[in-house]
Task: structure prediction
Amino acid sequence: MWKNIDPKDMSGNVFSRIGDQWMLISAGNRERCNTMTASWGGLGVLWSKPVAAAFIRPQRYTYEFVEREDYFTLSFLGENWRKQLALCGSKSGRDMDKIAACGFHTAYAAGNAPYFEEAELVLVCRKLYWQDMDPTHFLDGGIDTKCYPERDYHRMYIGEIVEMLEKD
Result:
């Protein structure tokens, strides 16, 4: 059902996958995990490794899981899951079991990182680096005003893509 592919062989446009279709950032373990929808992020090569960049605000419940674990996943589900992705982006796992509410089936990859059987593509990432966004570094002041009116700056996580799973 799943095949492991080389990140260089990923199909689809990364800008569309992240920005338009959205993705789920998930972390945790077999006992407890959480997920959130994201439409910000990036893929590329850094430190001679294929990497993914994920951005999470500190007040998000998923932040606690990504902070604690060595691995996180990015799951891309496609357009038929838009309603569930909207729920995972607007509700907190502190208040409800979003995974059950969406009808997702959790599977586990390297480092017990959770992902969802409903996904078309899954990136399994081992954390390499993190950094908090610093508003003094914005060269375009409009970004701070528009994206951070509450001053709740994201933490950026860079993860090495250790596995890329695609549905057969």
